[in-house]
Automatic annotation (TrEMBL), chain A:
Transmembrane segments: none annotated. Signal peptide: none annotated. This is Rho-GAP domain-containing protein. Pfam families: RhoGAP (PF00620), RLIP76_Ral-bd (PF20924). Gene3D superfamilies: 1.20.58.90, Rho GTPase activation protein (1.10.555.10). Keywords: Coiled coil, GTPase activation. PANTHER family: RALA BINDING PROTEIN 1 RALBP1 (PTHR12783), RALA-BINDING PROTEIN 1 (PTHR12783:SF5). InterPro entries: RALBP1 (IPR039767), RalBP1-like_Ral-bd (IPR049041), Rho_GTPase_activation_prot (IPR008936), RhoGAP_dom (IPR000198).
From TrEMBL, chain B:
Its main location: membrane. Residues 177-196 are annotated as: Disordered. One of its GO terms (biological process) is signal transduction. GO terms for molecular function: G protein activity; GTP binding. SMART domains: RAB, RAN, RAS, RHO. It is found in: Cell membrane. It is a lipid-anchor. This is small monomeric GTPase. Keywords: Cell membrane, GTP-binding, Hydrolase, Lipoprotein, Membrane, Methylation, Nucleotide-binding, Prenylation. GO terms for cellular component: plasma membrane.
Length: 564, 201
């Protein structure tokens, strides 16, 4: 496969983003957007200059901080040696840590030292509970929020109102929705590197952050950094290819249908986060007269962030209301702190109690793994006090309501009761597909799409069927049918191939797994490489099919003109 | 922490421990709000704060009422660590609860790592003399062995309720003053270390 195929690469520039971020992080933490050109260079080993030019032509606002970070990364890894280097950055400590911490990715500075420390600490974490402050773990190191998988990030930075998206994302969205949707070039213009890094650190340290103290570009860059630091794309590694395939479908109805199925099959947390992000980005695009960010522009500015193509993003934005029909973005109101007055009406008190209990659970969880400090203990007592007060208030409110039969309200447990009933979005009923188990959706989708072209597409103009046009359609149809047959044959062959490959693969696996240290790393690299190849393939296949389609059309016209 | 007790109101952190149903919550509520509840509602954890006058000094007391039931034992450590003084309660009507105090004592010493932690052994439900199962003598023997005071209370009649809280606060206050002294003297090194560490973190 040709890596250099420029169009393909243009569409998937973000694939190696996380690897590169890590690499860059050794020197500079700020990875957001710095590696636009870089990661391509890593893979391809050239075209940096071209890209830079292009950026300027497009009028990208390149901030100083970024370009210098770019240079920094670049100078450390000269483009010529990049490819081989990217296979070498395996360090033993990192490898170990990744295993022991379920592949959380470190995003912080001073990575190497920290890795070593973390190794020690994770061992401790497992062996015994930390008892005193000297042994206490630093929460930003032990339980970071950025750079870990989504589930962990949600667990560690909960929104205590039961909406399970990570707090930094929620607060960024809240802030941007309230202050920034008319900001020109929003999501395209990046914030100051140092500020973004500072805020990330504060989040990892569980400090309270008021984004109003910063600006819109800082918030958007933070949001982008969070998403890009996710070890796995939000579409999941397993489904990314399918998403790309679906996003590439030209027929709008088919595309929507396929995207809907894929979205609904995402893990709940991924789906939820995706829905919030897409609806939020759609809100941004609704204000395009002010912010100049059309859906197209937004997709182009955020494709790396999503580890996807801009085409896919654009497709999701286009269908967002159909994909996420019930979602409205609600501002997060955090649990009250002790200075604030408690609510009086029963319902609000109950809601507040839930939030406080969720917070309490989180504090206990953090302390149980050894993240103890005087401040955290202070907070523990404080939250506990608020809960006690709320419960007393609720009890008296109940008594006043029903003086004779006091309602036996089951008291929620402070420990186990967390946000256990997160918004269960009403599962939209998915229309069952005609072919529920498609082994190779690419081709089939495309076929489907090709078949549907004559009947419906964007233009709903009623067709006047003159003799010649009828004839043309007939010719076209013949060509398409032939194509379909050919493709179906291909599919069958591919399926056979897959089966035989699978058979070859199975017996080998167990003997390979436990053996080597660097193997895991290599494996994941190969998997990534495989992914990129697959996506390349899809793109090529798509192009081939588009070309074939054009050919058929031309042939049909030719035949028609021959007849005439 | 309590570095400048003269300026800020001192805050003393008290933790109630003991088996389920011995009257920890009853004692706490009696002390806090002068109320007594007859029906038993097991606690998971509750925390209270009250301003009191301790020997002419305005102080605040934080009371953490823990769960006696084993189901909630997992989170105890997190609370024990931050406690400055402990009221270890049993019911004089239930021998099992008296035996359990031994374990609570051990757990506290394990977490606090301090033999001299302010601590009172409290025999509650002293109004139920006819149901007494634990004699005054054996309870005060155990307290002597530990080097702590023994007091009998009744959350129902309010007998000795204030006493146990105030006695404990006095012990905590004395303990803090002692610590301040040593910290001002040779304990400075220790302080420095801590500070340095904080900066790193
Ligand atoms: N007669 C009498 N009853 C008491 C006294 N103290 C508590 N009780 C009763 O004993 C029962 C249990 O009291 P609680 O204070 O809820 O017990 P607890 O130690 O908090 O129990 P957990 O929360 O499960 O650990 C309640 O029914 C109280 O009314 C007392 O001094 N005298
Ligand atoms: Mg209780």
């Amino acid at each position: 496969m040709d890596f250099d195929s420029p169009d393909v690469m243009k569409d998937f520039p973000g694939l190696y983003a996380s690897e590169l971020n890590k690499k860059c992080n050794n020197d500079s933490d700020y990875s957001d957007e710095t590696d636009k050109g870089n990661k391509k260079d890593m893979l391809i080993g050239k075209r940096k200059d071209k890209k830079d030019k292009k950026d300027k032509e497009k009028g990208y606002a390149a901030l100083e901080g970024e370009s210098s970070a770019d240079e920094e990364c670049k100078s450390r890894s000269p483009s010529k040696t990049k490819k081989s280097k990217s296979f070498k950055f395996t360090t033993k400590s990192k490898d170990k840590r990744e295993k022991s911490r379920e592949k959380e990715k470190d995003t912080g500075d001073k990575k190497k030292e920290r890795d070593k420390k973390n190794d020690k600490k994770t061992e401790k974490e497992k062996n015994k509970k930390v008892k005193n402050y000297e042994d206490a773990l630093d929460i930003a190191e032990a339980l970071p929020i950025f750079g870990v998988n989504l589930e962990t990030a949600v667990e560690r930075s909960r929104c205590h109102d039961g909406i399970d998206i990570p707090l930094p994302i929620r607060e960024c969205i809240d802030y941007i929705e309230s202050a920034g949707t008319s900001f020109e070039g929003i999501y395209k213009i990046s914030g100051t590197k140092s500020k973004v890094l500072l805020i990330r650190k504060m989040y990892n340290n569980r400090q309270n952050i008021n984004l109003n103290d910063y600006d819109v570009p800082t918030a958007t860059s933070l949001l982008k950094m969070f998403l890009r630091d996710l070890p796995e794309p939000i579409f999941t590694s397993d489904s990314l290819v399918r998403f790309e395939e679906a996003g590439a479908i030209l027929n709008l109805n088919t595309r929507e249908k396929h995207l809907k199925i894929l979205v609904d099959n995402l893990p709940p947390l991924n789906k939820l986060l995706l829905s919030w992000l897409i609806i939020h980005l759609d809100n941004i695009s609704l204000n395009q007269t002010h912010n100049k960010m059309t859906k197209q522009n937004i997709s182009a500015a955020l494709n790396h962030t999503f580890h996807s193509s801009s085409r896919l993003l654009h497709a999701l934005l286009h269908h967002c209301r159909a994909l996420f029909p019930d979602l409205t973005i609600t501002k997060y109101i955090p649990p009250l702190s002790s200075g604030q007055t408690l609510p009086d009406d029963l319902e609000t008190m109950e809601i507040e109690l839930k939030k406080q209990e969720s917070l309490l659970t989180q504090i206990h969880t953090e302390m149980n793994v050894g993240c103890i400090s005087k401040e955290r203990e202070e907070l523990l007592w404080e939250v506990q006090r608020i809960i006690t007060q709320l419960k007393r208030k609720i009890k008296t409110a109940h008594k006043e309501k029903e003086p004779i039969v006091p309602q036996e309200k089951e008291e929620p447990e402070p420990v186990e009761v967390s946000v256990e009933e997160p918004i269960k979005e009403p599962e939209p009923i998915v229309e069952p597909e005609n072919r529920p188990t498609e082994p190779e959706p690419t081709l089939e989708n495309t076929i489907e799409h090709l078949e549907e072209i004559p009947q419906d597409d964007d233009n709903d103009k009623p067709m006047i069927l003159t003799d010649s046009s009828l004839l043309l359609l007939k010719f076209k149809n013949n060509g398409l049918l032939a194509l379909k047959e050919r493709l179906e044959r291909n599919i069958l062959e591919e399926q056979k191939e897959i089966l035989s490959l699978k058979n070859q693969l199975l017996p080998e696996k167990p003997s390979v797994v436990p053996s080597n240290e660097g193997l895991d790393e290599l494996m994941s690299l190969l998997q990534k490489e495989n992914q990129i190849l697959q996506i390349n393939k899809i793109n090529l296949v798509r192009k081939i099919i588009e070309q074939q389609e054009i050919c058929i059309e031309l042939k049909a016209k030719l035949e028609l003109s021959n007849q005439v | 922490m309590a570095k400048k007790p003269a300026v800020q109101t001192a805050l003393h952190k008290v933790i109630m421990v003991g088996s389920g149903g011995v009257g920890k919550s009853a004692l706490t509520l009696q002390f806090m709000y002068d109320e007594f509840v007859e029906n038993y509602e097991p606690t998971k954890a509750d925390s209270y704060r009250k301003k009191v006058l301790l020997d002419g000094e305005d102080v605040q007391i934080d009371i953490l009422d823990t769960a006696g039931q084993e189901d909630y034992a997992a989170i105890r450590d997190n609370y024990f660590r931050s406690g400055e003084g402990f009221l270890c309660i049993f019911s004089i009507t239930e021998d099992e609860s008296f035996q359990a105090t031994q374990e609570f004592r051990e757990q506290i010493l394990r977490v606090k790592n301090d033999e001299n932690i302010p601590f009172l052994l409290v025999g509650n439900k002293s109004d139920l003399q006819d149901k007494r199962k634990v004699t005054f003598q054996e309870a005060s023997d155990r307290a002597n062995k530990w080097g702590v005071p023994y007091v009998e209370t009744s959350a129902k009649t309010r007998e000795h309720v204030d006493k146990v809280f105030y006695d404990l606060m006095r012990e905590i206050r004395a303990r803090k003053m002692e610590e301040n002294k040593t910290n001002n003297g040779r304990g400075k090194d220790k302080n420095k270390k801590k500070k340095l560490k904080c900066v790193i973190l």
